[in-house]
Amino acid sequence: MKKILTVIAFFLAFQSASAQLFTKEKVANNPDPKDEELLSWGYFIGFNQYDFKFEYNEDLRDILVDRTFGFHLGLIGDMRINDYLNLRMEPGVFFTTRNLQYDEGYFNGMEFNDSDLLREIKSTYVHLPLLLKMSTKRINNFKPFVVGGVSAAINLSSNEDNPNDNNSGEFRMTKNTYFYEIGFGIDFYLLHFKFTPSIRGIFAINDEIIRDNDPNSPWTGNIAKMQTRGVFINFTFQ
């Protein structure tokens, strides 16, 4: 809730500042924009950084997540509700890698080697969000907005159905993940199209870990819940 209130406060402050900076009349680019159409289309590309949030059964050292930047791309379907609200679908494909670093305390009394302390998790998500975009009034060639909604993702690299577990070096996750999302950005009206940079946070709702066959597994036995969270930087063209 604090994150949501912070984003809304930033949005209102930005709107006020924009009104002061950009109210001087300028030549409007793209005077017949797709904003007036009931349905419009576009595409996006961008970068992502995924993380994990863990909850534990016992008070051991945290599992460290080494995050890397990934890449994504997709399509946009936009339905205009009114001048300030749009309903959007943004199906895309997201590529990311996360590395989990375990502390030696997880293997207390067990034989292990250095490779047991590290698990590389490569994920390819088919991401399917349904979003509500809430915009301000257009200010010359700018229009700030906030966006929020829910999404589902199919992890094509989940290994959910793999009978092998971490004892064979296979870290398994659920194939389906559900998120809520919130973000903000600015529409820039150029001469022939609309360019939109934005940033968005995503937060998983369900537990994603597939536990090992051994309930005392050092890799999964102490994890009560594991949920993805991440940040998207999107560049949209409409």
Any overview of this molecule?
This protein is mainly β and 238 residues long. The protein has a single domain, classed as Porin, CATH 2.40.160. It is 9% helix and 51% strand. The protein is built from 1 helix and 10 strands; from the N terminus they run H-E-E-E-E-E-E-E-E-E-E. Strands 1, 2, 3, 4, 5, 6, 7, 8, 9 and 10 form a 10-stranded antiparallel beta sheet that branches. The N terminus is likely disordered.
Main beta-sheet strand count, sense and barrel state = 10 strands, antiparallel
Taken together, the total number of domains comes to: 1
Question: How many helices in DSSP terms?
Answer: 1
Low-pLDDT stretches: 1-23
Q: Quick check: average pLDDT?
A: 87
Give the helices and strands as they follow along the chain.
HEEEEEEEEEE
Which fold does the CATH topology refer to?
Answer: Porin
Just give the CATH class.
Mainly Beta
Radius of gyration, Cα only, in angstroms?
22 Å
How many E strands? 10
CATH architecture field: Beta Barrel
Strand content: over 45%
